[in-house]
Amino acid sequence: MHTRSDKTLSARHREKQCHQLRLQLSRLYKLDRFDLFFMPSQRVARLILSQLMIRQEAMNRQRRQFAFAASELQPSPRGLPPQADSIAIIEHVSPLNGKVTAPDDHGSQGVIDASESFATLLHGELVEHGQLFITTLGSHAALTHSLVLVALRTCAFSTWMRSELRLFEQSLVKVTAVEAALQRIASRGWQPYNVARVAPICLEQPLLVRSVSAPGLPFSCIPLTPAWGSALALSSGDGFYCRERGLLHLAASARGDGSQPVTMTEALTQRLQRLLLAAAR
């Protein structure tokens, strides 16, 4: 049976490990202008952020009501507060079609999903213009799939918002996930960035295909019919086929410190050709 002292020591250990991981991520990914928080999953992170942003807006409305005459206030439609699903989630890079949306286009109006840009060659753009973003640490950072990073630009959000997020972190995050990320950072051979980039792909044999994703991403999206897509023998490292969109997502990976890109177009084209040749048999 755990005593109160044991629980206190456990909480302190978790807080210490989280602090160490924050320091490492801030250094490796140039996040010194952000406050960093950890969540167990993207679904949990989105739900918590939605609720906190709604409460923050409600408090802002109350302050405005005290500051201005009632005749000067603009009531919300039908007098209803915003709902959780009204919080916009903007994908910096869509994994389904490779479309890139600049963070500064919508960054002040919602939460940026940076899972396909964090720790890639688009990382600098994200850090320069993003205000609030979430990302899994198991994708391009290759740290752990059990942690999601929530990053808030310090100057753009209230102390209340940051305090609430820290409380959620303390109650939801498992120390084993944090320790796994720290061990990965300390391991020999690990590099913080996926520096792979892929130019447009055009293949004529055994099938005429052209990629539709933006150039320079660490993956390529190729239109394929469901008949071809279902015949592909994809491994976990290859990518995935989205039947609803008729698009194949082929992933590329090359580790580095973020300073030198590695062009993977030829390697990905050859992999695509092998997959299609195998599917045609």
Question: Can you describe this structure?
Answer:
The structure is a single chain. This protein is an alpha/beta fold. The protein folds into two domains: 4-186, Aspartate Aminotransferase, domain 2; 195-280, no CATH class. Helices cover 39% and strands 18% of the residues. It is built from eight helices and 14 strands. The chain has helices spanning 4-28, 42-67, 103-106, 123-129, 159-172, 175-186, 226-231, 265-280, and strands spanning 34-39, 88-91, 110-113, 132-136, 148-153, 193-194, 196-197, 202-203, 209-210, 219-223, 239-242, 247-251, 255-256, 262-263. The strands form five sheets. It has a five-stranded mixed beta sheet with strand order 1-5-4-3-2, sandwiched between helices. It has a three-stranded antiparallel beta sheet with strand order 10-12-11, with no helix packed on it. β3, α4 and β4 form a beta-alpha-beta unit.
